[in-house]
Design goal:
alpha/beta, Hypothetical Protein, Haloacid Dehalogenase-like Hydrolase, Chain: A, domain 2, 8-stranded mixed beta sheet, 11 helices, globular
């Protein structure tokens, strides 16, 4: 049984839950299965699209325990057992043509997501292929991207060479200030997100849904997009492999993702 005050463990995937080879080690998997058997909530919070989290969720058996996935950096919260979407934020539909036009004007690639795949509005480049490969989902090119998207989307992603995307980020962050959240998640990826989406904001919604307080939650991460949830959590944990700014935001530094840092957190605090 879990006798600790903590009732929920939230994990980033890349660099946190998985090691450098993008694998969940047997020790980490076993510890997380036991934690769920003991009645602790386990949630994945990732910048990945929902279908890109499927393999990870399966490895942790989230479906069996009806646990949670926060995808698109928290823009979508899904109960993995029932498939119910607890909360989501989508891009304003009227802005899609404008975002598409911005990509063309700035000579950037643009993609979004439909069902279990990536859809590209500009010719498929190496960065889009990388996004599809990381997530294990197919990609296809769509003619008339702006007209094609008649369904809700959680984000668009612009792609291009890092030095070029640094400039595009400045231009578009200024253009969409107060309208969209625009930031780079990788040097070659520019995220176009609904305003106010971050991991902390969506975890607040999930806690409300579950009737838990943030003091009962432990959040673990390694990247800049994890800082909001690390600061927000009752216990914020940074991996030893995390960026310095991320470590500075944390209450506790655990072992690296190649040394089963998550197992250490479970043994120490649960």
């Amino acid at each position: 049984m879990n006798h600790s005050k903590y009732k929920m463990l939230v994990l980033d995937i890349d660099g946190t839950l998985t090691n450098s080879r993008k694998e969940i080690t047997p020790a980490t998997r076993a510890a997380l299965l036991q934690l769920q058997k003991d009645g602790v909530y386990v949630a994945i919070a990732s910048g990945r699209p929902t279908p890109g989290v499927r393999a990870t969720a399966a490895a942790l058996e989230l479906e069996r325990f009806s646990n949670y996935v926060l995808s698109y950096n928290g823009a979508c919260i899904t109960n993995w057992g029932t498939g119910e979407i607890i909360a989501q934020q989508t891009l304003p539909a009227h802005l899609i043509p404008d975002i598409f036009q911005s990509a063309l004007t700035e000579h950037a690639g643009i993609i979004s997501y439909e069902g279990d795949g990536v859809i590209a509005g500009t010719p498929i480049d190496e960065y889009m292929e990388l996004e599809a490969r990381i997530n294990g989902i197919p990609i296809r090119y769509i003619d008339n991207f702006a007209e094609y998207i008649t369904f809700p989307v959680n984000k668009c992603l612009m792609t291009g060479k890092p030095e070029h995307m640094a400039e595009v980020e400045k231009t578009l962050a200024c253009k969409y200030e107060g309208i969209l959240n625009v930031y780079r998640s990788e040097p070659f990826f520019l995220e176009m997100m609904p305003c106010g989406v971050d991991k902390a904001n969506s975890l607040e919604k999930l806690l409300l849904h579950l009737g838990l307080s943030k003091d009962e939650m432990v959040c673990c991460g390694d990247g800049y997009n994890d800082i909001s949830m690390i600061r927000y959590a009752g216990l914020g944990v940074a991996m030893k492999n995390a960026q310095p700014a991320v470590q500075e935001s944390a209450d506790y530094i655990t072992a690296s993702n190649d040394e089963d840092g998550i197992v250490q957190v479970i043994e120490q605090f649960f």
